[in-house]
């Protein structure tokens, strides 16, 4: 990767968590941690000051929680990509964040390579879906609301072509454009074109919302 480094703001009320994330991210020469915040309000101010590309937001923080901060960032600075930091115990909050346009989520004990990959994906405009964690959370979500959501989701997906449904199904599995391309024997650029078309047809803000819709519609089961 060449060009300007990815500018990141880390927001978590635990100094040790922030220090660990900073250490991991700065091991990549293409990532620059420009600021650290201990609450959501401070995160918003720092993003405004530094023009961050990616914001890592903890959900549970004093003064302003991560979900509220994410909503404000989406309104005020839509170019900043928000990735939520969470634990398995916060499933409903995570799902609300994803449906509100977050660029994905990470578990706090995620592997260093996955953390770096998530930041890179978010900066590139892709919503990062950690396959194991996302399936766990989305399965919990869809199993509780399947009856209410499935029919609506299937009617929306019906407008897609067969190939678009194939791509959407892989989004629901949490695959990146590159991985989806390998599975479908397409170039990464072709998959990206399909994803853009799918998002427009389904009126989804990002691929996380499209992935949730795919699961509701039963794709990939």
Automatic annotation (TrEMBL):
The keyword Transcription applies. Pfam families: GerE, Response_reg. The modification 4-aspartylphosphate is found at residue 58. GO terms for molecular function: DNA binding. Gene3D superfamilies: 3.40.50.2300. GO terms for biological process: phosphorelay signal transduction system; regulation of DNA-templated transcription. Residues 7-123 form the Response regulatory domain. Residues 153-218 form the HTH luxR-type domain. InterPro entries: CheY-like_superfamily, NreC/VraR/RcsB-like_REC, Sig_transdc_resp-reg_C-effctor, Sig_transdc_resp-reg_receiver, Tscrpt_reg_LuxR_C, WalR-like. Keywords: DNA-binding, Phosphoprotein, Transcription, Transcription regulation. PANTHER family: TRANSCRIPTIONAL REGULATORY PROTEIN NARL-RELATED (PTHR43214:SF24), TWO-COMPONENT RESPONSE REGULATOR (PTHR43214). This is Response regulator transcription factor.
């Amino acid at each position: 990767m060449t060009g300007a480094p990815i500018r990141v703001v880390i927001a978590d009320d635990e100094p040790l968590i922030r220090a660990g994330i900073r250490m991991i991210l700065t091991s990549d020469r293409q990532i620059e941690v420009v600021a650290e915040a201990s609450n959501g309000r401070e995160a918003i101010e720092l993003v405004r000051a530094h023009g961050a590309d990616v914001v890592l937001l903890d959900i549970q923080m004093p003064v302003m929680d991560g979900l509220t901060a994410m909503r404000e960032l989406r309104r005020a600075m839509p170019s900043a990509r928000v990735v939520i930091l969470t634990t398995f115990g916060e499933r409903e909050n995570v799902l609300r964040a994803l449906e509100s346009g977050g660029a994905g989520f990470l578990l706090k004990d995620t592997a260093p390579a996955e953390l770096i990959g998530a930041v890179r994906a978010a900066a590139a405009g892709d919503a990062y879906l950690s396959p194991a964690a996302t399936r766990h959370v989305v399965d919990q979500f869809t199993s509780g609301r399947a009856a209410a959501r499935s029919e609506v989701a299937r009617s929306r997906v019906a407008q897609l072509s067969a190939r678009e449904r194939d791509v959407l199904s892989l989004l629901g599995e949490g695959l990146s454009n590159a991985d989806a391309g390998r599975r479908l024997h397409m170039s990464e650029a072709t998959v990206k074109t399909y994803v853009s078309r799918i998002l427009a047809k389904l009126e989804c803000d990002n691929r996380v919302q499209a992935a949730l819709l795919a699961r509701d519609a039963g794709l990939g089961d």
